[in-house]
């Protein structure tokens, strides 16, 4: 079975996003591990830095979870049902001042 270009792009995007997700999870796990299981007492500045890093990773992990657990396909687009008609003048023609070139 021969894959179309769109299917190839979807497959490459999936694997790229999967690798990015695994790397992000590994980095987050390492940061949490360093904070919780450090054998020596960490300095205050190191603890602050690790807390900032954990806070920065929360939106990244939320984005990863949203991508993998939200319904819908990779290139899925909702049809636009509520399109506004172009503005009309009194004689029924489009208003030239509202047209964007």
Task: Write up what this structure looks like.
The mean pLDDT is 76. 57% of the residues lie in helices and 0% in strands. It has a domain of 65 residues. The longest helix has 32 residues. The radius of gyration is 25 Å and the shape is elongated. It is an all-alpha fold and 101 residues long.
Please state the CA-atom Rg, rounded to the nearest Å. 25 Å
- Please outline the major beta sheet: none
How much helix is in the residues? 55-70%
Cα end-to-end separation: 45 Å
The beta-strand count equals 0
Which structural class should the secondary elements be placed in? mainly alpha
Low-confidence stretches: none
In DSSP terms (H or I, runs of 4 or more residues), the helix count works out at: 2
Mean pLDDT: 76
* 3D shape: elongated
Which terms summarize this structure?
0% strand; elongated
Break the fold down into its secondary structure elements and pairings.
Layout: H1 5-36, H2 44-69
Helix pairs in contact: 1-2
Short description:
The chain has 101 residues and is mainly α. The protein has 2 helices and no strands.
